[in-house]
Protein 1
Amino acid sequence: MAAPKSLQEHDSYGNVSYAIISSNPNALQTCPGPSSKKHGPDQPDISGAALKSQHTKMGKPEDTERKKKLKDVEISVPIVYGNAAFWLGKKASEYQSHKWTVYVRGATNEDLSVVVKRVVFQLHSSFNNPTRVVESAPFELSESGWGEFEIAITLYFHNDVCEKPLNLYHHLKLYPEDESGPMSIKKPVVVEFYNEIVFTEPSESFLARVQNYPAVTFPRLPAGFTLPSSAPIEDESKRKRGDTKDHPLNQWFLNFSEADELLQLAAARQQVQAHIAKLRRQISVIDGQNQQFKSSSDQ
Amino acid sequence: MDAKDILGLPKTPLPITQEKKPRPQKDSQRKPDGISREVYALTGGLAPLMPSIDASQLKRRPPSDEKITWQWLPFTSSARKDDLQLYHWVRVVNGVPPTGDYSFAKYNKSVDVIKYTDEEYEKYLTDPVWTKEETDQLFDLCERFDLRFIVIADRFPTFRTVEELKDRYYSVSRAILIARAPSPGEVAGHPLVKEPYNVSQETERKRALSMVLSQTKQQERKDAEVLAEAKRIAESRMAAQGAEEPDLPVTSDIGPESVERAIGHGDTISPSSVQVPSAAVAPSTSIMADNASTLASLRMLRVYLRTYALEQMVQAASSSAGLRTIKRVEQTLQDLEVNLKPKVPTKAVCAEHLELRKEILTLLNLQKQLQYKEAEGSSFRDGSYGDMPGTPKRSHRVVDQDRTFVPDAISFGGERAGKREQKRKGPGRVSETPSSPAHKRPRKMKALDL
C-alpha cells in the first residue's frame, strides 16, 4: 500500500512493512498464450533470464549459438484471415446451404509457410472431425454447411520461430449484411480481417532464414549486426504453390491499405491538437482572472 | 346516519339488536388483563403474535411478602478521601437498609504515576531541556489529571507542546523502570520499555492527520488519485524490473515519501495552481510506467497479434480514466470518423491510433480543468457579490466556436452571470464542480426571505 508513511500501520519499532509480491521461483515458462491477459508472477523470472544472460531456454543444446535473441528487434508478418462463402442456390439443401472456405493468407498473398508450420481450424462440434489440421500452404479449409459459428484458428510456427502457437478467432459469415438483398451464387460473402503477427526477440537463425522472404516484414537490425547468409531459397515451383496470388478466390480478396487509415488518423490528431491548444489558452486566461480574485479578496 | 337521512333510506331495522351486537364485540376485543386499555390500544388493539411480555407479570411485579420503603439516608464513599456524608434515596427492604460501599466507588480508577526520589533524579533523569522543577510539576499534573496530556499541557506553567510533555513523562518513567529493575530482562516485557515514545514520529503523525482532516474535497480526490498512481507505479516498477529485486524495497519506500511530499506541497500552496503540475506530473509518470510494463509483458509473450498489443496499450493508457471517460474517448473517436479498432492495424497505424487516444484523453482532462477553473472563478465572483458578466461570457463564446465535436459537458461551463442563475443549477449540473461556501450563502438568504 502506498500510503503516506506516517499514517500507515507500523509495528512497535516504527517500521513500515510493505507486501512485496515474490516471483515464482519455479521452472521458467516460455511464451504464455497471448489470450491470457494477466502479468503472471513468472514474468520477472523470464525477463531476468532474457535480460541477464543470453542462454537459450529452448532446450536444444546444439543450437545454442544460433538461438541468441535480439532485444528490441521484432519481426512482423502481416496476415489476412477470414472466410468466403458461396450460396449454393438451387443445389442448397437444409443442412448444406453454403459452401465456405476459411483461410489464413499473407496480406500481400505471399506464402506464409516460411513462418507457419501448420494451421489448425477448430470447427463447430456438429462437424465430423471438427479439428482440421492443414499442414501446408495455402492454409485454408473448405466445408459446406448452413450455420455461422466461431472458428478457432491456431497457428503453429516452425521451431526456430516460436514454440508457442497463436490463436485467432473468426466468426464464420455466410449471410450478407444486407439481409433483404438477393443472395447470389456467383458472388460470395467475404469477411476478412487484417492483422500482424509480431515476434519479439527473434532468434538469429530465424532472422537469417527469412531475410529474403517477402511474406515477412523484416526489421531494421541494430548497427553493425550481420546475419549469416540464409539457406538457398527453395525452388520456384515449390514456393509458388504456397502463395495465394493465383488463388481461385483471389478476385474476392479485400485490399488493406494503411495509407487511408493513416491519413484519417493524422487528420484527427491535428484537430484534437488544435483543440487542446485552444483549451490551454483559455485555461491560462482564467487562471489569470482567478489570481486577481484571490489577491483582491485577501482575508 | 346523516347520509342515510339525506338519502332517505330507512334507518337500520331492529335498533335493539344494534345495541347488543357492539357490546359483546367490545368485551371480546378488550383482551388485556393487567394492561390498561390505552396501552393495549398502542399495539393496534390486537394481541401480538408473540407475547412480548407476559401480561400477568406486569401487575404482579411488587412482591407481596416484602415491605419496601424508600428512605432518605446518608452514605459515604470509599472513593473519597474525606469523610463527607451525603444523602440519597435508598430502597429499604423490611426495614433493613442496604449495606456495602457506595456502588459507584469501584469506578474510581487512577493511574499509577511513578514517583522518583531526588537521588534518582540526579542519577538518571537529568535532561538539558528540562529542569527538575519542571519535571516535578509535570509529574504532579500527571497525577492530578490522570495522564490527560491535553489538560496537562494547558495547565503547564511554561509553554510546552503535548508531544514534549509526553516525551518527558514516558522517557522518565522508562528510565526509572529500567533503573529500578533488578535485571533488564524483567522489565523488557513492560510496554514502556518495549515501545518507547517517539516524539518526531508522533509530531509527524499528528501533523499529517491534521492535514488530512483539513483537506478540501478536491484535495481528497487529488490525493486519492495520486496515491492510486503511486501504487501503480510501484507495482509496474516491480513488474518491469522484476529481476532487480533488491531495488524493490527502495523504490517502494521512495514512492510513499514522494507522494507525501506531493500532498504536503498541495496544502501549502493554493490548490488550483498545484492541481495542474501535480495532475500533469502524476498521470504522465504513471502512463509511462504503464507503458513500460505493458511493453515488457508483450515482449514476454514472444508472439502476439498487433491488435492484441494495441488493446493492451490502450488499456494501459486509459488505466487512470474511469469508464465514463473511456466512453467519451470512444465517442470522440466516432465523431472524428476514426475506427475504434483500426481496420489495417500495421505498426504505424497502431502507433498513431494510440497517440490519438492519448491526445483525446488530454483533451478531456483539459476540458474538465477548464470547468473547474470557471467554477472557481464564479465562486470568487459571487463571494465578493460582484458581477463580472464580461469575462465569463467571453470565454463561453470562445468555447462555442469550437463546437465541431465537443461533447456536451463543455457547455455547462459558461453561464454564471448573476446570483439568480445559481438556483437553476440543480441536478442537471455536472457534478464535478466543487460547491464552495460562497455558492451556498446566497441560496440560504433567499430561503429565509420566503
Protein 2
Amino acid sequence: MTKITSKVYINVGRFGVSMAPFLFIALVILRLFLSTLHNSKTKKMAHPADVQLLNKALSGIGVDEKSLISILTKTHHEHKRFIRKGCSQFFIEDERQFERWDDSAIKNLKVEFKRFKDAVMLSLMHPWERDARLLKKALKKGPQLYGVIVEIACTRSSDELLGARKAYHSLFERSIEEDLATHVKGTERKLLVALVSAYRYEGPKVKEDTAKSEAKELLQAINNRDKRKPIEDEEVIRILTTRSKPHLREVYQQYKKISGKTITEGLEAEILLKETIECLCTPHTYFTKVFETALREDANEDDKKALTRLVSTQEAGNLKGISDKFAHKIEERVKGAYKDVLLGVLAKGQMSGQA
Amino acid sequence: MATIDVPNQVSFLEDAEALRKACQGWGTDEKAIISVLGHRNAAQRKQIRLAYEELYQEDLIKRLESELSGDFERAVYRWILDPADRDAVLANVAIRKSSPDHHVIIEISCTRSPEELLAVRRAYQARYKHSLEEDVAAHTKGDIRTLLVVLVSAFRYDGEEINTRVANSEAKTLHDAIKDKAFNHEEVIRIMSTRSKMQLMATFNRYRDDQGTSITKNLPGASGDEFLLALRTAVRCLNDPKKYFEKVLRSSIKRTGTDEDGLTRVIVTRAEKDLKEIKDLYYKRNSVPLDQAVAKDTSGDYKAFLLTLLGKED
C-alpha cells in the first residue's frame, strides 16, 4: 500500500521531476484542442469574410439578396454577434452594452430594398399614371427635382404628355398646370408651366428660314445673358416651349453653324434651360449623362432614383448604347435583383436594335 | 339647349343627292342647301360629306365654296365643318389678321370644355402643321402673348370639386391686383389660366360677395389697354359664357365694336349647344326676340340660313 503514492517520478537525467503538473497541462491542452475542433465544425467561413460579405451585400445600389440569404441561413446567434461586432457601419455599441442597428443604416437599407419594388411598380404602371405620379413627386420635392419635370415634359410625345395630364386630373383632382403654377415661384414657373402645357406639332415639316432666324434670336439672348437671364427672355421661352421638336433640332444645327458653339455651351449657368434643350434636341446625350451621374461614387439618392425612372419610362431603344458604356459600372455598383432588372432592360434595347 | 331642328329619319345618300342637285346647272339652289344642311347635326353633316365624296368623288365643302359667296358662304362653310375643325379655322383666321382678334382666341379657349379645346388643338395641327400655341405665340407679344398662350394651352381639371380656402385666397389676390391696377400680374394670369372652371366660378362668387360688385365691373372695358380688354373677355367667358355670347350678338347687330363676324360665329358655334338659352337672355335684355333682330339686320340667303339655325320652321 505504501508503495503506491501520488507522486510519480520521471527520471529526467539526474533530476526527478513531478509528473502531476505536466499531466494537468496536457489535459488542458487536449480540452482546448477538442473544443476548437467542435467550433470549426459549425462555422463554414471565417468571421472576417462574413463581415466583408455583409458589407458588400448592403452597400451600393440595390441589395445582394443571394449573399444575404447565404449569410442568414448559415449563422447562429453566436455568429451573428460576431457580425454585429464586425460591421461597424451598420451597428453601433449602445451605452447599455449591446450592439444596435445604426438609425441612418436602417434608413439607407429601407431605400435600397425599396429600389426593386419601385422598379416593378413603375414598370407595370400605365405610362400616363407613371408620368403623372413622377410629376407630382417632383413638384412636391421642390427645385432640386424640377429637372424631372423638364425631362418628362420634353421627352414624351405630344399625346403621351397629354395622357399624363389626364391621369393627373384623375389622381389628384387638379390640373398639373394649376399645381405647378401654385407651387413654383420665380422665373422657372413660366418655363415649366409652358413646357407641361405644350402640344407640339409632330410632323416633319420644318421651315429653314424660321429656324435660322430663331437660332439668331437665341444667340442674341445668350450673348446678352449678363444683362438679362435667358430664362426671362420671352422669345427664348416662346421658341423652346411652342416649336416642334424637328424644328428645334434644326434651330440647334443652325445655331451651331452661325456661332460655332452648341446652344447648351452658352447656358452652363441656366440648368433648367440647358436641360430643356438637351431633352428636346439631344435626348440620347441627356440620358447618358443621367446614367453617368447615377453611377458615380458620390451620387445622391435623387441621382440614383433616376436609374429606376429611366429604365421604366424610356423605351429601351432610347437607351441604346448605354448598356455597353455602363455595363461594367453597373456590375460594380449595382446589386441583386435590381441589377438584373437594369441590365435586362438595357439588353432588351440592344436586341431590339431600335435607334 | 340646341336650336336646330333635326328630323327623326335622315338618309345621308338622299341628302348628298339633294345637295348635288342643288349645285348642278346654272346657279345654285340655296334654299335646298339650307333646308338640308340647316337641319342636320354635326355627326350627320359628317356622314353627308362622306356620302357625297363616295358618290361623286368630290369634296362637298370645296364644291359649296365655289358655288356660294359672301356672308352666306362663310356661314355655310363654318357650319359644315366638324366643331373642332371649325374652331381651328376660326382661331387661325383670328391669328392671321394684321391685328389679331384676341377675343376670338379667348372665346374658343375659355368657352369650350377641356376635351373640346384639346380636339381643337389636334385639328389645328392637322390643318396648319403648327401647334396652336406656336402660332399664337409667334403673332403676339408681351403680356397679351403670355395670357393667350396659357389660355390656349390649358387642360383644366373638369371636375366639380372646389376648394373654398383657395377660392377665398384667390379672390383676395385678384382684388389686390385690381386695386393696384396690376392687371397683368403673374398671379392673375396663373389663376385665370390654370384653375378649373368650377373653381374659378367659386372664386368670382367669393369676389362678388366680398366686394359687392362682380369682378367684371372692376375691369374697365372702355380703356384702350388691350391686355385689360383681353383679361376682361376671359373673365366674362369663364364666368358666364351665355351672357358673354348675348353681348357679342347684341354688339354685332347694333354694329357697335368691330366684331363683324360675331353674329355668324356665335350662331354657328352655339346652335348645337346653348343657343336657346342665349336667345332667352337676348329677349330679356333687349325686349326683342333674337330672330326678329337678325331678320331686320340681315338679308337674302344669309338671313334664311341664320334663321334656320335659330330654329325657325321652314
